[in-house]
Design goal:
Distance between the termini of chain A: 13 Å
Number of domains of chain A: 2
Largest interface: A-B, 75 and 75 residues
Strand order of the largest sheet of chain A: 13-12-11-14-10-15
Largest sheet of chain A: 6 strands, mixed
Oligomer: homodimer
Low-confidence stretches of chain A: 187-194
Strand content of chain A: 15-25%
CATH topology of the largest domain in chain A: L-amino peptidase D-ALA esterase/amidase
Shape of chain A: globular
CATH superfamily of the largest domain in chain A: L-amino peptidase D-ALA esterase/amidase
Radius of gyration of chain A: 22 Å
Number of helices of chain A: 11
Helix content of chain A: 25-40%
Chain lengths: 411, 411
């Protein structure tokens, strides 16, 4: 199935500069795809630190299991990613593929296998021949290139309709550091490709512990605030590597260090950028939806309610139909199971108040709301009237395109 | 939008016999529909007991709020139901509509307002003129008829494509009692019609407390085991009334009384029948899906995992595409957040073992599974290998029909 570029894709791809200590090579593995690169080696200089966040799925893939263990060492020399096969639910054979990959990369780069991170995305349940990866590593090491971030983003795509990159800079003390990131989202051409993968690298010098704290926090407010269809992948992987090669950096020992404020903002911003790009390439998406939830009992409650709205098929189909159906938003708030005061509930669509005090807003004029619903970017604001908790989440509409991509075939 | 009869509809509608002490009348209210009855009065003889189960939504409708209070009295003389307007999120105006309805019916039947139960299904957020109901009650009382269960089932439909009835008999001691039930499911022609309503009546003589215990238990294993799209209505209502007019019944004081075994089985069976009919009329449904989950840590965990599978858009679209995509079932088990052993997970589709011990089943032959997926009734069995908890849930596939019904219009 050939998919057209998402109508929600950004006008320009962000060009990422080289990052000292990070180099890239891509090639075709022969695992699944023909005529395109689908194997990525991201090499990090000796001494690079690492942080990671992985799927909460209890059926996590073999590469995820490997990365979780490797993360304990806090060091990274390589990230190896293949697209086309998720190496999930592949039993002991799957574990062997990952171990073989890590060992081969470690041998070639003269590091420990636990410094090699592996990620896979694609079909579930089909072990593949590990030599399709290990046999390519030598060649990849020969062509490593600091500027190939666009090629890296393209190599990890499955049926993403555009490559996702983001870059930011920040000062840590007197030093200027760069952060680059790539991500892939959910696109399907075959069963079970729905993995979110993201890899971020920086030349900042930060201990693994600090890196992990920054990454976990940024993740909560970016990727963990997005949903396409509420189905959690077996393979979701987000890795942040820091080469420490930017010049003139002060030593940082704590994530709370004031001198990290700019870096933290830049990282948060880059992660949000990538997360939103993933949603903008959601399967069959025609509209991008931002849901701002306020007035909840806690930030956690706000996020739960916002995600209940974002995951509701009735809300998502109404948006696809350009219908400002606030009754379905009320329904979703109700089913979220979090504290909300029906008689203080306020709903705004495109900035217009549509419902308040347990009923339709007095003098509600559907005109501007109907016009807003015809656009590509839909803004929904909901205040549930019980506290100060707030959250913003991002999703897309549910269209015939989603059904076509996921249901219109026989494997 | 005119909807064709669901391809999953039962071949025959069950004819319900009269139940001593229960009478029915229907008419057109003028609230929304034209050319069909959309207002139901179910009258119960003085002394009838009642039990009820209602939506867990925190944005529950005005009628649901009323019924929850009325239920404390344990007595029922009338159930008034209208289709076309849910009287949900209608503020104080909505509360007044319900109170006016109950008072008018109580006056006409010479009972207390708290013995009148009200249910509404249809559009959210639009208060309507209560006299459209209260003005019709006198006329309805004049034409009450014990045999009109089919008409009752038809009058509560929104865009259901068939009327849902069920009847069973059972012995309590030497007495033969009858149970009749009607239900409506989720169909949409306008925003926010997705309410599940079910009304069950019997001529058994049972105290309200006993009735409630039997109903709550039966509900857990019937309606609460079904899902069409995972969106909980503001108005879900299930009411069981017992007129006590069957002859020769022994006095029953406890739900655990052995003499209730037959009645309990009949009630459970009737409720499952109605619940399955609701799923078989799910929006856009082309396939009926039964998911049997075994080997979980508890029955509750089993139900959570089964519902995660049943609500997964990726599983549902795969079934629509006649694709035995067990990788997506693995994904759904993983995201359920309940204990499961990946290496002991077993998946059967149409009775054929497709996955076991963390990988595809040895010698797996796709032939019989592909044939099963072409049928209307899909059987999925999953054993998660950690305990003895089990549950069975029912759902339908996710098709272009669902998007068409819920997304292809502008209000």
């Amino acid at each position: 199935m050939e998919l057209a570029r998402s109508p929600l894709a950004p006008a320009h791809t962000q060009d990422c500069p080289a990052i000292a200590g990070a180099r890239i090579a891509t090639t075709n593995s022969g695992i699944r795809y023909k005529g395109r690169d689908d194997l990525l080696l991201l090499e990090l200089a000796p001494g690079s630190t690492v942080a990671g966040v992985f799927t909460r799925s209890l059926a996590s893939s073999a590469p995820v299991d490997w990365c979780r263990k490797a993360l304990k060492g806090g060091k990274v020399r390589a990230i190896v990613v293949n697209a086309g096969n998720a190496n999930a639910f592949t039993g002991k054979a799957g574990d062997r593929i990952v171990a073989d990959t890590a060992k081969a990369a470690a041998k070639a780069l003269k590091c420990k296998p636990a410094e090699v991170f592996v990620a896979s995305t694609g079909v579930i349940g089909q072990p593949f021949d590990a030599t399709k990866i290990t046999g390519k590593l030598g060649g990849l090491i020969g062509v490593l290139d600091g500027g190939a971030w666009g090629k890296a983003a393209a190599a990890i795509m499955t049926t993403d309709t555009f490559a996702k990159t983001a870059t930011r800079t920040a000062k840590i003390g007197p030093a200027m550091v760069t952060i680059n990131g790539i991500a892939k989202g959910s696109g399907m051409i075959a069963p079970d490709m729905a993995t979110m993968l993201a890899f971020v690298a920086t030349d900042a010098a930060l201990p693994a512990k600090v890196l992990q704290a920054l990454l976990s926090k940024a993740n909560e407010q970016s990727f963990n605030c997005t949903t396409v269809d509420g189905d959690t992948s077996t393979s979701d992987t987000l890795i942040l590597a820091a080469t420490g090669q930017a010049k003139g950096q002060p030593k940082i020992a704590s994530a709370g260090d004031k001198r990290l404020d700019g870096f933290r903002r830049a990282l948060d911003d880059l992660m949000r950028d990538l997360a939103i790009q993933v949603v903008r390439d959601g399967e069959g998406a025609e509209k991008f939806v931002q849901i701002k939830l306020t007035g909840a009992a806690s930030d956690k409650a706000a996020k739960a309610i916002a995600l209940a709205i974002a995951n509701s098929p009735l809300v998502k189909t109404a948006i696809a139909g350009q219908d400002a159906n606030w009754g379905r938003i009320v329904m979703a708030v109700g089913k979220a199971g979090q504290k909300a005061d029906r008689d203080k509930l306020k709903i705004r669509i495109g900035g217009t108040l549509v419902a308040t005090r347990g009923a339709v807003a007095p003098g509600y004029d559907e005109g501007p709301v109907a016009a807003h619903m015809k656009g590509r970017d839909i803004d929904i604001e909901v205040d549930v009237g019980v506290g100060k908790g707030k959250a913003t989440v991002w999703t897309c509409d549910l269209t015939h395109g989603y059904i076509r991509i996921n249901g219109d075939y026989r494997s």
